């Protein structure tokens, strides 16, 4: 092994440890945040007994979950029942590996260890565990693996509630995968690349993509809700209909793993939204963050954290505001509204980019962005004020005629 | 349509789901900054808005006279009127001819907290209390004997007064 490769491996291991720890601790704290946010929205205080302002509540919950009894239903398919939580837990954590969380940091070292030999590193280190050239395509691929865990949990529990939850989860996640995939195509059209680093650099140079691609952001975020099984799309759990859906039969740490997976997925969706549409670790209105350095890395990391957390907050905010969709409403929203909107939007953006770049020959990406932003304003008016009048979400059957 | 069924006409064509959602989200966001209703229980047991009613009927208390003896004369009216049959009374008599309870026990698990014992007592000895913190580690601790009933210090219920039904 060359010293450069060893240096690279060393840094990767360090980054893995940091990201893994932060993800797991952060996810634990998110459960507290969720309870706090829901309490505040209902004029309550939320957990405030364990530790200062309830900060140790996740630790208490975690301890409780570890020492609780692991139940195993007699009729369950034992092997799949044990594997299902792992199937949903592992992909959720893998996703954290590809999201860049700060500006690249210049690191240089050259040292030798007795047995391992010489380690060399010189140059910019991207602040991401795996700087994959396939970028967010990896996220799309892995995130759809999560449905296996849920479907298997539902099937192997041998319980009606679990099975219904698992079925709903599969149908829902397969349906919303389509608009999710379609909503990132406009991003590729503008950035010309699928790697996170290239997309963020492109956004630093011009506008954040939320302006020129507002509807792509909208579709992505709404599909993200469905992919993470959050209200208003929490069909697979639906506690008022299916007890707890696919994890009805799970207890203790196995249940906890589904829970951690759900929150890790929320963080991933929030971080993806921040990276694809809100400039990633870009600090707005400053060029200072583009020269590499330790201060820049820390500051940009902080900004990425703030952006991610604000989207996590929006996810929770929506959960405690909206009631659950009915199942057929969910399906018709996905297939009859979001899919056509996604397809049409790809065509519209493709045409617009062609018009601006080839017909009008405008080189500046800012001007192009502003042009697309104008287009989005028109589209937003059409959709929100004309199309979405009782058509987007409605019952499956017409209202029966009322005889007085 | 059956008689008496009220049919609400809900707007179906003029509502935008997304704008309605934003309206709802604005409402929940405003609620985050409203004053909290939570009463921090062990530290805070009554507030200006909420306290136990003086008519609250909780676990019993036996009042005592100046010498510390219970006021009970073992007349037997309270076990007689008790609908749950939870009072056990064995009367005794001292050399001066004063009756007193040898055994006076109330099973608080059987008790329905009707307050008849307090109402019927001619000596105003047994009372139901304005009190609710009764946790114990074993079930037999819920049979209160005379000593325990006499050593309680919580306020006693004022019950409902028929001549003053609104408590004025």
Description:
- Chain A has 404 residues and is mainly alpha-helical.
- In chain A, 63% of the residues lie in helices and 6% in strands.
- Chain A starts with a helix and ends in a 17-residue tail after the last helix.
- Chain B is an alpha+beta fold.
- Chain B has a domain of 92 residues: Alpha-Beta Plaits, CATH 3.30.70.
- Chain B starts with 16 loop residues before the first helix and ends in a 17-residue tail after the last helix.
- The chains are: A mainly alpha (404), B alpha+beta (168).
- Chains A and B meet through helix 1 of A and helix 1 of B.
The structural class of chain B is alpha+beta
Distance between the termini of chain B: 50 Å
Biggest chain pair interface: A-B, 24 and 26 residues
Total discrete domains of chain A: 1
Largest sheet of chain A: 2 strands, antiparallel
Beta-sheet strand percentage of chain B?
A: 5-15%
The total count of helices of chain B amounts to 4
Poorly predicted tracts of residues of chain A = none
Mind telling me the C-alpha Rg of chain A? 23 Å
Number of helices of chain A: 13
Cα-based radius of gyration of chain B, to the nearest Å: 26 Å
CATH topology of the domain at 60-151 in chain B: Alpha-Beta Plaits
- Determine and state the CATH class of the domain at 60-151 in chain B: Alpha Beta
| Biggest sheet descriptor of chain B | 3 strands, antiparallel
Q: Report strand order across the widest sheet of chain A.
A: 1-2
């Amino acid at each position: 092994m060359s010293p450069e490769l060893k240096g690279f491996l060393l840094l990767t291991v360090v980054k893995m440890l940091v990201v893994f720890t932060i993800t797991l601790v952060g996810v634990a704290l998110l459960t507290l945040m969720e309870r706090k946010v829901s309490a505040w929205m209902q004029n309550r205080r939320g957990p405030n007994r364990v530790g200062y302002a309830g900060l140790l509540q996740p630790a208490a919950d975690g301890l409780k979950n570890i020492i609780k009894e692991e139940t195993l239903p007699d009729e369950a398919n034992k092997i799949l029942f044990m594997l299902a939580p792992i199937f949903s837990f592992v992909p959720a954590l893998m996703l954290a590996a590809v999201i860049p969380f700060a500006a690249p940091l210049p690191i240089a070292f050259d040292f030798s260890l007795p047995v391992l030999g010489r380690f060399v590193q010189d140059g910019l280190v991207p602040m991401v565990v795996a700087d994959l050239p396939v970028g967010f395509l990896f996220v799309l691929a892995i995130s759809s693996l999560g449905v296996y865990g849920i479907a298997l949990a539902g099937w192997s529990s041998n319980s009606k509630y679990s099975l219904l939850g698992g079925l709903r989860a599969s149908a829902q996640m397969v349906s919303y995968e389509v608009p999710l995939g379609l909503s990132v195509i406009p991003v590729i059209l503008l950035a010309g690349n699928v790697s996170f680093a290239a997309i963020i650099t492109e956004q630093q140079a011009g506008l954040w993509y939320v302006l020129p691609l507002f509807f792509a952001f909208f579709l992505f975020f709404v599909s993200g809700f469905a992919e993470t099984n959050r209200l208003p799309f929490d069909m697979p759990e639906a506690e008022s209909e299916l007890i707890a859906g696919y994890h009805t039969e799970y207890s203790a740490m196995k249940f906890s793993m589904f829970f951690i997976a759900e929150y890790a997925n929320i963080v991933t969706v929030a971080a993806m939204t921040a990276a694809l549409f809100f400039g990633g670790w870009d600090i707005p209105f400053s060029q200072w963050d583009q020269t590499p350095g330790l201060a820049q890395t820390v500051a940009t990391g902080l900004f990425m954290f703030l952006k991610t957390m604000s989207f996590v907050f929006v996810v929770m905010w929506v959960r405690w505001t909206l009631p659950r969709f009915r199942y057929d409403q969910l399906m018709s929203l996905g297939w009859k509204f979001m899919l056509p909107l996604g397809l049409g939007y790809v065509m519209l953006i493709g045409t617009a980019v062609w018009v601006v770049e080839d017909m009008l020959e405008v080189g500046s990406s800012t001007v192009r962005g502003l042009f697309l932003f104008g287009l989005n304003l028109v589209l937003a008016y059409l959709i929100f004020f004309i199309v979405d009048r009782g058509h987007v979400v409605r019952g499956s059957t017409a209202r029966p005629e009322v005889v007085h | 349509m059956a008689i008496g069924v009220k049919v609400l006409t809900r707007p179906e064509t003029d509502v935008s789901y997304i704008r309605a959602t934003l309206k709802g989200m604005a409402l929940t966001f405003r609620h985050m900054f409203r004053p909290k209703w939570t009463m921090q229980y062990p530290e805070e047991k009554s507030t200006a808005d909420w306290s136990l009613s003086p008519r609250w009927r909780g676990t019993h208390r036996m009042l005592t006279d100046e010498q510390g003896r219970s006021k009970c004369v073992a007349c037997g009216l309270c076990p007689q009127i008790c609908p749950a049959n939870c009072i056990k009374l064995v009367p005794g008599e001292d050399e001066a001819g004063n009756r007193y309870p040898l055994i006076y026990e109330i099973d608080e698990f059987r008790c329905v907290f009707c307050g008849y014992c307090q109402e019927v007592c001619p000596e105003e000895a047994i009372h139901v209390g304005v009190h609710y913190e009764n946790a114990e580690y074993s079930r037999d601790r819920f049979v209160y004997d005379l000593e325990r009933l006499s050593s309680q210090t919580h306020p006693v219920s004022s019950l409902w007064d028929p001549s003053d039904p609104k408590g004025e």
